[in-house]
Amino acid sequence: MPDSREIRIDPATNTLIRQGVPSIVNFYDLHGLEEALRIKEETGARVTVVTMGPPPAEKSLKTCIALGADEAVLVTDRGFAGADTLATSYVLAKTIQKVEQEWGKVDMVFCGKQTLDGDTGQVGPGIACRLDLEQLTYVSEVKQVDPIRRTVRVGRKLEDGAETVETRMPVLLTALKELNRVRRASLPGVIRGHRYKPIVWTTADFPDLDRSQIGLKGSPTIVAKTWVPEAKKVTCQWLSGENAQAAAAGACDALWDNNLPARLGWIRGGAVHD
Amino acid sequence: MTDAVQVQEYDWSGYRGVLIYVEQREGRAKPVSWQLLGQGRRLADKLHTHLMAVVIGGQIEHLAKDAVAYGADRVYICEAPELRDYRTRPYSRLMMQLIEEVKPEIVLFGATATGRDLAGAIATHLPTGLTADTTELDVEPDPSRLLLASRPAFSEKMMATILCKQYRPQMATARAGVFEALPRDNQRSGEVLRLESRMGEDDIAAKVLDFVRDQTSVNLEEAEVIVAGGRGLGGPDAFRLLEELAEAMGGVVGASRAAVDAGWIGHEHQVGQTGYTVRPKLYFAIGISGAVQHTVGMSNAELIIAINKDKEAPIFQFAHYGIVGDLFQIVPALTEEVKRRKLAGEPLASEEGEVGA
Ligand SMILES: Cc1cc2nc3c(=O)[nH]c(=O)nc-3n(C[C@H](O)[C@H](O)[C@H](O)COP(=O)(O)OP(=O)(O)OC[C@H]3O[C@@H](n4cnc5c(N)ncnc54)[C@H](O)[C@@H]3O)c2cc1C
Ligand SMILES: Cc1cc2nc3c(=O)[nH]c(=O)nc-3n(C[C@H](O)[C@H](O)[C@H](O)COP(=O)(O)OP(=O)(O)OC[C@H]3O[C@@H](n4cnc5c(N)ncnc54)[C@H](O)[C@@H]3O)c2cc1C
């Protein structure tokens, strides 16, 4: 993904300009990769990394190879540009199917919880839905992977607590940063990454691709307008701060003037509501 | 003719009404559900259409009544033992079935973990567009009836309005704490309809083995009073002063990211872009400068009082009342004053004149 600190928007189409923006690996994705590499070390699985993006995204793929991924695929084509999450998940689902044809069955797909630019968290569920995979989002711990029973047990972190869920493979997981600590590349890894040429797939490599479902055309959402929000300004009434007691009395007067003690139920009249 | 713009007309007259997904756990609705019903009511009224709610779960009968009280005209309820815990497959199947049957023009979910998980699956299945994490929702009246879904982008530096012209329903997830619930009205009447769950436990691969509720979590999103502190507190000890003030007012303690990052207080207290969006009746910003990433999370508070020793601090552009001074002097004095007046039960302005503002 592009480094969101340097992002720009195409004023004509209101889509992201990914060209010329330094590419970094989305930070949640690194946690997904880390977990995949741990499972590889335990079970001998094969780890393939895929990304859809403009050619500079190659650099991010090399980073993933340096960390220990077996191969990396860049899916790139002008036709894919301007994709929203629906179109992105379509192409990524097609890519995963093609990965299966090339290297064998995919049992687990790791995504980040969200990206740092679009920040929707919708691409993971979109891919799972298209490939009919079980879906485990917001994963904070992979507790068990059982290749024989073909089950996965994970901890999920939600707003109000933590959940343990078990389901069957094939499964798609989206990673939280709590999932693990990302390793650093070893020196041989760095050299391997440096020399590695990612595999490149374009629309031509997907014979059954439905062109109406990709890129801007395949994206139901349209960014109609962007603007810089004006700071919501209010006029501040100053309360005397020269002496703490005066300030405290002033603040309390303000609360009482606004009828808050009654509306908050501190004092008589507490039943009065809004 | 040059540059003829191709205008395609779609007939969406078969799609009417606004549908809100009511998220619950163990029979307790998330506050965002009622906030969305409030906003949904405004949108439905503007479109001269009806507002629907859907509740899925284990023991949730009572939530149908609540949804009506918070503004729904019609509530779809699906109750079954296998629906007790949220799981993507059975919930999304049910939602698909409902959406295909009632053809709403707009469907809204809370931008919670569950809301995003569910909405992402449904939008792909339908398929339709899904706008993420919106903070402003409006509609264009007839004939377009478009949902104008606006969301922050690029670390809140920008806003973007996103449309879904060629697909129905138009779907969005919306941030908690941004919209206002309507006051509960138990006199409202509405229709309650039942949905059949067509999946049995055996058809569902995912099993929820346990759920541990986070007991330490302060409920910032539901709090009516928040006393928040920042780097100006200088260390963890000063949070004791804030706790005392919060306690005197029946509130909870919030914090800026600087205070959280310094390790003075837990992340569950953080207000702002990467913390919680809150909308309490009363918000104290104490020793907080007012960076945009903080203010996006709290500027919807009804009344904001800032205490800062720097008169130029940006927080004063958001505060209704400002005190320039040292928090170590002012906070304890304020706590004492609140306690004193509460005890005295000072008469309200409203008791002398009319009730209400
Ligand atoms: C201002 C603005 C607002 C936008 N809002 C919306 C919106 O509300 N709804 C919408 O549908 N689109 C929206 N888009 C388009 C969206 O940004 C793009 O579709 C984007 O490519 C998808 O990224 P995301 O951040 O939504 O992905 P997320 O769903 O947040 O990403 C989650 C994970 O999916 C995987 N992933 C995502 N993209 C790729 C990829 N290209 N290659 C490999 N893996 C990937 C990664 O593992 C990532 O960690 C918006 C675009 C702009 C410019
Ligand atoms: C991607 C991103 C996400 C972020 N998300 C969040 C977020 O969710 N929430 C958040 O809060 N921030 C967030 N931030 C950080 C934000 O930009 C600011 O750095 C942070 O809010 C500053 O915290 P502060 O106001 O407590 O500290 P400071 O800016 O250091 O302000 C301290 C204030 O205390 C005052 N002060 C000092 N001593 C006293 C005293 N004795 N009495 C009274 N006043 C005193 C000072 O005058 C000053 O105004 C985010 C930043 C980034 C880049």
Automatic annotation (TrEMBL), chain A:
Residue stretches making up the Electron transfer flavoprotein alpha/beta-subunit N-terminal domain: 13-210
Pfam families from the UniProt entry: ETF
InterPro entries the UniProt entry points to: ET-Flavoprotein_bsu_CS (IPR000049), ETF_a/b_N (IPR014730), ETF_b (IPR012255), ETF_beta_N (IPR033948), Rossmann-like_a/b/a_fold (IPR014729)
Transmembrane feature ranges: none
Cofactor: AMP
A GO MF label: electron transfer activity
SMART domains per record: ETF (SM00893)
Family that this chain belongs to: Belongs to the ETF beta-subunit/FixA family.
This protein's name: Electron transfer flavoprotein small subunit
Organism field: Xylanibacillus composti
Lineage: Bacteria, Bacillati, Bacillota, Bacilli, Bacillales
Encoding gene per record: fixA
From TrEMBL, chain B:
Residues annotated as domain Electron transfer flavoprotein alpha/beta-subunit N-terminal: 18-208
Sites where the protein binds FAD: 231, 256-257, 270-274, 287-294, 308
GO biological process: fatty acid beta-oxidation using acyl-CoA dehydrogenase
Cofactor note: Binds 1 FAD per dimer.
InterPro entries: DHS-like_NAD/FAD-binding_dom, ETF_a/b_N, ETF_a/FixB, ETF_alpha_N, ETF_asu_C, Rossmann-like_a/b/a_fold
Annotated family: Belongs to the ETF alpha-subunit/FixB family.
Name under which the protein is recorded: Electron transfer flavoprotein subunit alpha
Native organism: Xylanibacillus composti
Lineage of source species: Bacteria, Bacillati, Bacillota, Bacilli, Bacillales
